[in-house]
Amino acid sequence: MCFDPAALLTRRAANPGARGSRRLERVVALAAPRAESPMETRLRLVLVLGGLAAPVVQYVLCEAGGRTIARLDLAYPQARLALEYDGGDHDDALDRERDLRTGALGWHTMRFQAADIVRHPERTLRLVGAQLAHHTALLAAEKELTSR
């Protein structure tokens, strides 16, 4: 069973004067029940509150035949851009192998650690925004060339 953030609005209706209840719509709008870690959520909020479109949470990337290649923490499928949060002691050969598989499908993966999100959120926002614009433009140009 998955938590439904909209259920908070129902609860608020029963307690209209509760402290903080006026901000609840914004909190519900920003919620992503599929997020699997607090730091993934923080990364997503850095992006969204910084003005970027909301990435897809826990995006399942499949090859043309339908076989699952990877489940990505956050993704901008229209730009083939994957965002992954790696915890402090995360150094996984399986992730590097997965990056090679997703790269073979034309995806670019950006990996972030806690410092990128907590200490340098502006830089993280700038880097993701630049890559998002770059890859979106590349794919648009590729589409333009193939449609001729």
How would you sum up this structure, described in words?
The protein is α+β, with helices and mostly antiparallel strands and 148 residues long. It has two domains: 1-31, no CATH class; 34-146, Endonuclease, Chain A, CATH 3.40.960.10. The protein contains six helices and four strands. It has helices spanning 7-14, 24-30, 38-49, 93-104, 114-118, 121-146, and strands at 56-62, 68-76, 81-85, 108-112. Strand 3, helix 4 (93-104) and strand 4 (108-112) form a beta-alpha-beta unit. It is globular.
Structural topology:
Elements: H1 7-14, H2 24-30, H3 38-49, E1 56-62, E2 68-76, E3 81-85, H4 93-104, E4 108-112, H5 114-118, H6 121-146
Parallel strand pairs: 3-4
Antiparallel strand pairs: 1-2, 2-3
Pfam family, one: DUF559
Domain DUF559: 73-129
Protein name: DUF559 domain-containing protein
- Please report the number of helical segments: 6
Order of helices and strands: HHHEEEHEHH
Question: What fold name goes in the CATH topology slot of the largest domain?
Answer: Endonuclease, Chain A
The geometry reads as globular
Under CATH at level 1, the class of the largest domain stands as: Alpha Beta
Q: What would CATH call the architecture of the largest domain?
A: 3-Layer(aba) Sandwich
Beta-strand content: 15-25%
Which sheet architecture does the biggest sheet show?
4 strands, mixed
* Helix amount: 40-55%
Span from first to last CA? 48 Å
Strand ordering within the main sheet: 1-2-3-4
Total domain modules: 2
Based on CA atoms alone, the radius of gyration comes out at 18 Å
Overall strand count:
4
Pfam families: DUF559 (PF04480)
InterPro entries: DUF559
Protein name: DUF559 domain-containing protein
Domain DUF559: 73-129
